Amino acid sequence: MQVVAFSLPCPRREIFSVSAGTGRLLYVFCGVPICMTRTKKPNRRSLSAKAQGITADKRSRRYQAILNALQESGSIAVEDLSERLHVSVVTIRRDLDELEQQGLLNRTHGGAVSGHPLFYEPFKNDRSFMEQVKRLADEKRRIGRAAAAMIQPGETIAITPGTTTAEIIRGLPLNFNITVVTNTVNIAMELSKRKDVNVFVTGGHLRGDWFSLVGATAVQALNNLLIHKVFIGADGLDAEWGASCHSADESELNAALLKRARRRIAVVDHTKFNVVAGWRITDITGIQAIVTDTGASDEMIAPFEAKGIQLIRV
């Protein structure tokens, strides 16, 4: 170890020695060595990175809160969000602009509304389509949000066609890095801008009434998949007959998804209870949980609870 020594003009012969290798300061006072370590200055680059991480985390939480508020009501105002989240209106406007660029909402004067991609535009003059979209819209948003809250980071989930199931993807948490398996074109398109979501589309023959892909090709595409949770819509849900729909092709595809899922969840509004449609998807033992709205009475859900099925009303 190289040592540089020097003397100070002091009657007590104090001597300082500095180690060139370690930077330690050796202070000899009246023949007694005292070792002192130089204090390191804070790393400004490290502190800056930490601050940026905290800022990004706060921003991510704001984004999620904005999307949650949007799904609750379908529209949000800048002033209300500013008050609710305790940030400036400038910050909220910047957040809304960023979320619009990600395709998660549409900006309006003074706020934002739920984002509907341009491929829905040709259907705005289709009365039957618009009736399906608007019917029990608030209830479907609540159901979708509750179902989305059941999803865990890193999971593979499956979503079947329908207006209620479509609300699930609009309530998906940010940065969960999940995989979505679907036979539904509109769901795949709505998720196309989500960089944190992997989308697997089955392929198959397109049925135009609700963008669904069906047929042997769609079923075969599921052969090697393991699905953590499947969320199915249904035209009818009966405690004896089970879940059912009006299409033979869709019932086959939905049944195949159920067989490959660890947890099987039906998402239906209250008007679907005690209804039997033409084609059975599964008997009631194939359903483990049902998410519905508060319009479902105790009498309506009692037969399902008696069979050990979890009921969630929102």
Topology:
Blueprint lengths: L2 E5 L7 E5 L5 E5 L2 E5 L7 H30 L1 E3 H8 L3 H13 L3 E4 L2 E4 L12 H8 L2 H12 L7 E4 L3 H8 L7 E5 L2 H6 L6 E5 L3 E3 L4 E3 L1 H5 L6 E6 L3 E3 L3 E4 L2 H12 L1 E7 L11 E4 L6 E4 L5 H9 L3 E4 L1
Parallel strand pairs: 8-9, 8-13, 9-10, 13-16, 16-18, 18-19
Antiparallel strand pairs: 1-2, 2-3, 3-4, 5-7, 6-7, 11-12, 14-15, 15-17
* Rg estimate, integer Å: 30 Å
CATH class of the largest domain: Alpha Beta
CATH arch. level architecture of the largest domain: 3-Layer(aba) Sandwich
Q: Residue share in helices?
A: 25-40%
Short structural summary:
By secondary structure, the protein is α/β, with parallel strands linked by helices. It is 35% helix and 26% strand.
Would you kindly provide a written description of the structure presented here, covering whatever features stand out?
With 314 residues, this protein is an alpha/beta fold. It has three domains: 3-36, no CATH class; 44-114, Orthogonal Bundle (Arc Repressor Mutant, subunit A); 118-313, Rossmann fold, CATH 3.40.50.1360. 35% of the residues lie in helices and 26% in strands. It has ten helices and 19 strands. It has helices at residues 44-73, 78-85, 89-101, 127-134, 137-148, 163-170, 185-190, 216-220, 248-259, 298-306; strands spanning 3-7, 15-19, 25-29, 32-36, 75-77, 105-108, 111-114, 156-159, 178-182, 197-201, 205-207, 212-214, 227-232, 236-238, 242-245, 261-267, 279-282, 289-292, 310-313. The strands form five sheets. The chain has a seven-stranded parallel β-sheet, sandwiched between helices. Strands 1-2-3-4 form a four-stranded antiparallel β-sheet, with no helix packed on it. Strands 5-7-6 form a three-stranded antiparallel β-sheet. A hairpin with a 4-residue loop joins strand 11 and strand 12. Helix 2 crosses helix 3. The protein is globular, with a radius of gyration of 30 Å. The N and C termini lie far apart (73 Å). Residues 1-8 and 10-21 have low confidence and may be disordered.
